[in-house]
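assembly run, all chains below
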Amino acid sequence: MTQLLDLVGIFVFALSGALVGVRRRLDVVGMAVLASMTALGGGILRDLVLNVRPAAFFSVGYVVVPLAATVIVFFWHPHVLRVMPVVNVFDAAGLGLFCAVGTEKAMDAGLSPLHAVLLGVLTAVGGGVLRDVLSGQVPILLYDRQLYAVPALLGSVTMATLYALDLHGWPATLSAAVLAFGLRIAAVRFRLRAPLARGVTPQE
Amino acid sequence: MTQLLDLVGIFVFALSGALVGVRRRLDVVGMAVLASMTALGGGILRDLVLNVRPAAFFSVGYVVVPLAATVIVFFWHPHVLRVMPVVNVFDAAGLGLFCAVGTEKAMDAGLSPLHAVLLGVLTAVGGGVLRDVLSGQVPILLYDRQLYAVPALLGSVTMATLYALDLHGWPATLSAAVLAFGLRIAAVRFRLRAPLARGVTPQE
Amino acid sequence: MTQLLDLVGIFVFALSGALVGVRRRLDVVGMAVLASMTALGGGILRDLVLNVRPAAFFSVGYVVVPLAATVIVFFWHPHVLRVMPVVNVFDAAGLGLFCAVGTEKAMDAGLSPLHAVLLGVLTAVGGGVLRDVLSGQVPILLYDRQLYAVPALLGSVTMATLYALDLHGWPATLSAAVLAFGLRIAAVRFRLRAPLARGVTPQE
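ok done. output:
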């Protein structure tokens, strides 16, 4: 179950990466690279920190799913763009799932709750940061229009708390993911933003 | 023999990195950083994924060769630029060697052929991606004018196939490298490109 | 003692990261990300190369100190900017401490002096490179106006030499750090620069 949710998260993140590739008029190789990095980058960074071999290099699904997303975007990107609001909902779902799963794996590996939360957030946002850096943009994470890291933080804290209370398994994971997902959707809907330093006006 | 080929690959990749430093008018430190990252970055990323200490931090040659390339470019870059077509041939040779050696090391470490191929491509293109990101450019890999990742993919698939057939050793490595090299040279010669998503026109 | 020096280095590096966040008008999340990456990035890269779990994910201080720096900059950045020359002195201190501590840890882990020096320099400059890449700038390291990597190199070489002479402990670390610090301060004061390749004029 958790694994299925994980693959869904990878798929929607890969869609968003491949679409950035189309928008920047990259060829199919660039699309596949961006799709894979967006989908797998966060998990790879997490596993490097945990000092284990990245799961992406041991699972067939992790390789095939981003390529499938690339093929879909390659042939039907106008249709994908038309359902982009739906993709954004999926992206929020991916964010929620990745922060919950990342925090869980970090707790399993013996990190403190504080550090597990950090690593959960890194898992959730790392792929997007790599996508933006590779495609030559300042990571959207840093601007965080409409709260992006904060929902991941909420989901990670929830997961770490549940885990510390000995509540494991996919119901706990899903609850944390749903919370993060909900806050992210609310942030997009109501344009919630993180504050800027005193006296600083937002960038255009 | 394989080791000698490896050092040749590192040397030509370092030349290309140091030349980017000259073109961007960086000082000798920037040149040395770009030369080293271009030459060693792919192998370092590969070793991080394989969860072993990067070979670059245990071999003297891996440190000295990029510095030698930096010194050469520092003093004689106009001559190096004049023989740049030759350097491009060497770069294609480096690409071929790195994808073959990377795939081999990944198979040695017990990865599946599918994942060994991925890691082989990462070894071949990783250094160039780091060079481009550090020097503030969108990685040339993403545009892939004149097929860059695809030859590496061909070389990696060849290497993994030979390895799976129990054909090890430097003749196998060299065959895979030569195939990748040949396709890369043909791609430059005949301007072979990967396709763009349906209805997308190439960037200028 | 070494640990206290380490936290001081982290604090001043985090200040510099958070200030870049203010200058680029990022929100508090972006500021915290830049502060943490600047302060912890070099050490994380070092630990990844040494194939151990990054210290940043096992120490509470390493997480709290960059956040404290972010809070200070968030509320009092005009005051921080006014004392910026002081912050630059601290930054030079951080550079010195990080190269010395990084080289020491690398020697402890059994690297050769040559490679320990490289890793010491990576520890010192890695965080700044990540800060610059994330905020969409070419790393200041590459331009190296007023020698940045060279003082780190001097400090690392000193540390490796002392270590090879069996001179361990914080007096050795501090000596190496002070040397690097002194050269960095002198470089800023007297505008010392690394040379450019023959016939190349510096960028504007």
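The longest helix of chain A spans residues 84-108.

Chain A has a mean pLDDT of 89.

not gonna interpret more than that til we talk
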